[in-house]
C-alpha cells in the first residue's frame, strides 16, 4: 500500500471531534445571522455531520475532513474573538487558505487591519494579499503583479493612506501611464485634464473608500495627495513620499527606468500591473514584463505574484481568469496570427498614406 493509499484510507475512517467554544466568544457571531456561517461550513464539508449545542460544536465524518474542519472552526473562533465580523465569504476564503500550500493562518490574514474609515476596516482577504501587504511594509520598492481583482492597487493605496496618517511620509503620489485601450486621447472631448482624468479615475475611487471626499479635495489642493499621469514624473525627485505606479504593464522599459529612478530619500514605491493586459503598441517591450529579470537580485525590492485565488471581486472573475489562462496556453497560434494581422494592417495603412 502506497503512502497516498494509506492517507486515503485514513481519511475514510469516521471519527467524532468536539470543540468547546470559549465563553467570551459569542456563538451568535460565530454561527452568523440565521446560521449563515454554519451553513457555509456545512457546504464546504458536505461529508460531515455538524451539530451545535450550547457552546459546543461536534463534527462527525471522515477523519481528514474532521481534522480540517476543526482547524477551520478554531481559526473562526480566533477571528470572532478579535472583533472581526464573520461572513460566508470569509469561511470560503479560510477553507481555501487551509487547503493551499501556505503557512498563513486565516485568523492572521483576516484580522490584519490596515486602516478604518467610517467604521469599515480595510484588510487583506487572502494569504497572497497578506504577503503583498507585508512586503510593502518591509521593503522600499514592492511589485504587485497579478490579474484584475486581486487588490493590487486598492491595498497599495490603503498602505499609502496608512503611512500618511502615521506620518511616515509627507505626501502620496499616485500615477498611471495614459495608454489607450481602444480609444485615442486626441479623439476624446475636453481639455488635456478632461482627457487624462478617466485614466486616473480608479485611483480616485480607491482613495474615496479610505478618505472623506472633502479631505481628498483639501489634500489634493495643498499637494499632500497628487494624482498625475506618468509623463509628469520625468525630471523629479520624490522624497518623503509614498509613490504608487498603477497599470505598470503599459510602461515601456524606458518609462519604468525613469519612474524607478525618481525615488528620493525616505520614500516608498509600489508598482502594480497585470502582464496579461498589455495595451502597448506591437514592438514595444513592457517594462513590467522584464523588470524581475533586471532587478530580481537587488536587495530591498520584492516581487509579489498574485493569482486567481487572490481575486476578491465576484467569484466568477477568478473562473474567467483561469479560463483565459487555459485558452492562452491551448491556442498560441492565435496570438501569432493576431500580431501578424496587426502588423499587416499597419503596413497597409502606411502604404495607403504614402499613396495619398
How would you portray this structure in words?
Helix content is 47%, strand content 16%. It has helices at 3-12, 27-31, 36-44, 63-81, 88-99, 106-110, 127-138, 152-165, 192-208, 213-221, 253-260, 287-295, 315-330, 332-355, and strands at 14-20, 49-53, 56-62, 115-117, 120-122, 141-145, 171-176, 225-229, 241-245, 268-273, 301-305. β4 and β5 form a beta hairpin. α3 runs parallel beside α5 (88-99). The longest helix has 24 residues, at 332-355. The chain is globular. The termini are far apart. 32% of the residues are buried.
Number of helices: 14
Oligomerization category of the chains in this entry: single chain
Number of strands: 11
Estimated radius of gyration: 25 Å
Q: From the helix content, strand content and strand pairing, which structural class follows?
A: alpha/beta
What shape does the CA trace take? Answer: globular
Main traits of this protein?
356 residues; alpha/beta; 3-stranded antiparallel beta sheet; 14 helices; 47% helix; globular
Any chance you could write out the topology, listing elements then pairs?
Blueprint: H1 3-12, E1 14-20, H2 27-31, H3 36-44, E2 49-53, E3 56-62, H4 63-81, H5 88-99, H6 106-110, E4 115-117, E5 120-122, H7 127-138, E6 141-145, H8 152-165, E7 171-176, H9 192-208, H10 213-221, E8 225-229, E9 241-245, H11 253-260, E10 268-273, H12 287-295, E11 301-305, H13 315-330, H14 332-355
Helix pairs in contact: 3-5, 4-5, 7-8, 11-12
Amino acid at each position: 500500500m502506497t503512502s497516498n493509499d494509506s492517507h486515503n484510507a485514513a481519511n475514510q475512517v469516521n471519527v467524532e471531534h468536539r470543540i468547546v467554544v470559549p465563553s467570551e466568544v459569542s456563538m451568535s457571531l460565530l454561527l452568523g445571522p440565521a446560521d449563515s456561517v454554519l451553513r457555509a461550513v456545512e457546504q464546504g464539508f458536505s461529508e460531515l455531520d455538524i451539530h451545535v449545542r450550547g457552546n459546543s460544536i461536534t463534527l462527525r465524518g471522515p477523519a481528514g475532513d474532521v481534522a480540517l474542519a476543526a482547524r477551520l472552526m478554531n481559526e473562526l473562533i480566533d477571528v470572532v474573538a478579535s472583533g472581526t465580523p464573520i461572513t460566508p465569504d470569509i469561511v470560503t476564503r479560510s477553507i481555501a487558505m487551509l487547503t493551499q500550500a501556505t503557512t498563513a493562518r486565516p485568523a492572521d490574514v483576516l484580522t490584519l487591519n490596515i486602516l478604518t474609515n467610517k467604521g469599515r476596516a480595510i484588510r487583506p482577504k487572502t494569504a497572497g494579499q497578506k504577503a503583498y501587504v507585508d512586503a510593502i511594509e518591509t521593503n522600499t520598492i514592492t511589485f504587485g503583479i497579478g490579474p484584475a481583482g486581486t487588490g493590487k492597487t486598492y491595498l497599495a493605496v490603503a498602505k499609502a493612506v496608512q503611512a500618511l496618517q502615521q506620518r511616515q511620509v509627507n505626501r502620496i503620489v499616485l500615477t498611471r501611464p495614459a495608454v489607450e485601450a481602444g480609444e485615442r486621447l486626441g479623439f476624446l472631448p475636453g481639455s488635456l485634464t478632461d482627457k487624462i482624468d478617466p485614466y486616473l479615475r480608479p485611483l480616485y475611487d480607491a482613495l474615496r473608500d479610505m478618505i472623506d471626499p472633502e479631505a481628498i479635495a483639501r489634500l489634493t489642493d495643498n499637494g499632500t495627495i497628487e494624482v498625475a499621469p506618468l509623463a509628469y514624473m520625468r525630471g523629479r525627485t520624490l522624497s518623503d513620499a509614498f509613490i504608487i505606479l498603477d497599470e505598470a504593464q503599459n510602461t515601456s522599459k524606458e518609462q519604468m527606468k525613469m519612474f524607478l529612478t525618481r525615488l528620493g530619500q525616505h520614500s516608498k514605491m509600489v508598482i502594480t500591473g497585470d502582464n496579461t493586459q498589455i495595451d502597448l503598441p506591437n514592438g514595444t517591450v513592457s517594462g513590467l514584463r522584464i523588470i524581475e529579470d533586471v532587478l530580481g537580485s537587488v536587495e530591498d525590492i520584492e516581487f509579489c505574484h498574485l493569482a486567481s485565488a487572490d481575486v476578491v471581486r465576484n467569484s466568477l472573475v477568478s473562473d474567467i481568469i483561469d479560463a483565459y489562462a487555459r485558452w492562452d496556453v491551448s491556442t498560441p497560434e492565435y496570438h501569432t496570427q493576431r500580431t501578424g494581422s496587426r502588423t499587416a494592417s499597419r503596413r497597409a495603412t502606411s502604404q495607403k498614406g504614402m499613396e495619398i
